[in-house]
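User: For my dataset I need records formatted as: sequence, then structure tokens, nothing else. Please produce one.
Assistant:
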Amino acid sequence: MKNTPAINEAPHEKFRRRRSRRLLIHFLLFTIMGILLIVSGVRGRKLLHEIADNPQSTTRQQVIAYKLDSAIEDMRVAVLNRAGISPDDKDKTKLKVITNLVSSSFRGKLEEMITGTDSVEDIAVYIVDTMTSRATQRLTGKDETTVSLKESVSSLLEESRSDLLIEATMMVDGARESITSMEGVRVSLKNINPKPDQFFFIYYSIILLVVGAICLTIGCFTGIVHFCCSQDFQDVVTNIVEPLDYLLPFFFGVIVFTLYPMVRVFIMAFQERYKLTGEFAGWGIGNFNDVLFGVNTKFPQALKNTFIYVFITVPISVGLSIVLAYLLNHNIKCRALFQTAYFLPMVTSAVAVGMVWKFMFNGDYGIINWFLSLFNVNKIYWLTKPEYSMAVMVIYGIWDSLPFTIILLISGLQNIDEHYYTVARVDGAKALRIFFRITVPLLAPTIGLVMITNSISAFKVYNSVIVLFSGSPGPMYNMYTVVYYIYEMINSSLEYGRAAAASLVLFGVILVFTMLQLFVQRKWKYD
């Protein structure tokens, strides 16, 4: 019996030694990774330094050419827009202005000024004066149409001169920053197709250095613990490190696909005129100003439509869901059929269902108009008349939100103790009284949950707009929603900063609305 502790101790010591080896593996792995990443990052910074500081570098010359061409094109489009001329215009007279707005001599002098010592203001004045004068000089015809167009273009450009100077100043600042600074050269590299092996180390050099430093720090820490600390402390560290090994893939996914996009959107919202190349004109709240108060901005209309949609859809859908969930929770006839009908949207493609509803709303042969005709109601052109757009959205939105809401409410109903109903029936309470005095109060926490989830979903309405109105926001562009506005800023206008700003505004609205609902729900009294 005295030898029993020794017999039991051997496996324990073997297990501790095995766990101790884990720290050694972590030390070797993270140290090697850290060194390799830091060496790669240093190599990338060295290559970038050579490109940015060498005026004769072919790569730097390509960066200058690209940035200059990009800036000139942005300014050319700005001038044409101010002049009321579209780059897609097929009119031959206007085509002269579009194709001859920039000359080779202008480009050469502009490159010399931007890479030289000229002030930003002087360069901006030169750009605006040259482009606006050429816009009118090219209109040389004597016919009435050309003369009228020339006067109109000249007047519009004169009125918008101050705005054009601001845009030109921002463009020059961005171009000069991209040409002269190491960070600007780094961001511009991916647009000139550099050597793939060099591009990776240059473009991601900062990330390589940061990640390498983190890995090296972890490696040094685990090495110190393994070689210099007691066995008990090694066990404590191992108990912390082991779970992290298994959670690391999850953390990586959360950081890359959730946390980083959230942080990036927040940063982009304050970067004015941000582009996917990483370039932007400057920091500030200009994106928020453009979104909320800019000329011809659709965001106020989108916010108004979204609020109307939420305030109509959510209460009606929750009220209907409570009644339907209460009925489906009882043994009614054809219960399985009704459950299938109400849960159908949960297992059906949103696009396919939207197309079906689009045919149902058709003014000529839709089933809804057919049903209304039974009551002598004239044809209603739901999808082509602006006054019916909100009604279409609300009807479809209510139907679409029923399944998930019903599932949650049925779950809440099944958690209500049956004894409450038994006692109420013994006391002679009627079904309607039982519903309002027992079911609804005890179901209140679930009702509060579905109110919040449905509100958040309604604020993000987008699919129904796309499907019902064939990709446009209503028949007369009258059904902009906040998410559709964000989509349009990204996909059509390429205004990523404004899209990010609108996203933050939407986030703030949803947050305030949710907090308000939670505050109201705490005040509910259940008798």
